[in-house]
Amino acid sequence: MKHRRTILQCRFGGPTRMEEAFRTLAVRGVHWFDVLDVLAVTALFFLVFRQVRGTRSLHMLIGVVVLAVANALSGLLEMTATHRLLQNVLFYIPFAVIVLFQEPIRKFLATLGGTFFGYRAGREATSRVAKETANACFILAELRYGAIILLERSQGLKEYAETGIRIGAAVSSDLLVTLFYPGTPLHDGAALVAEGKVMAASCFLPLTAGTLPTTYGTRHRAAVGITEISDAVCVVVSEERGVVSLVMDGRLETVDSSDELERRLTDLLGGKPVESPATESGS
Known about the structure:
Blueprint: H1 2-12, H2 17-28, H3 32-52, H4 57-76, H5 80-91, H6 93-100, H7 102-117, H8 123-143, E1 147-151, H9 158-161, E2 165-170, H10 173-179, E3 190-194, E4 197-203, H11 218-229, E5 233-237, E6 244-248, E7 251-255, H12 258-269, H13 277-282
Parallel strand pairs: 1-3
Antiparallel strand pairs: 1-5, 2-4, 3-4, 5-6, 6-7
Helix pairs in contact: 3-7, 4-5, 8-10, 8-12
């Protein structure tokens, strides 16, 4: 070990940066704010990873991390040319990040703000919204009426409500089914549910830029698009196939029953689980 260190010292003209770092740490010691610092950085990386998980941005983020690690290692190993090159590349990374990750950054900041200042409906009201929405979706699926219902979470969706017709009525399965009846002028577009109410109908949502299977139509593209840039949850009913899909974080999944959809929505919206009909009748 001593021989290896002597070789490194001869090569670089003195103690390596890695040795200096360990020596400084040994002299200074580890304080509680060092642990807090590490936890803060870990939490930040976790929050960022949650925002880009399952998206194309994840691969770009991994590339940035690889460059940063390579830059750190080249500095520790005194690889001067490589280190200088990577430093020049990383100098422009913040500008590239703003351009490449503008949607995840926007979603992260909006979610962070909504966590502290967003509206939170009561658990009972949220559970009622989940139950009525689930019932409506499977009635619509049986009737083969297409529908898209957008449910707000922590991030406000007022800008999308303004693209439609204001409703402001309590959520009920009858109202939702009526809104998406093909003969009504409000059946095109999305119904927006927020604060325990159907806030608006016939709302326009941004379409995803990604590719989807040909079995999915415009409603599915809109559901994926809005959930890619917000933390909202979308439920889509296919009029061609009568299939109900739950969409969040830009990912689609098929739901097979009203009870399953109710449970998923209750969990995602943070509501209180509702007793099943069998439980209620037995009490």
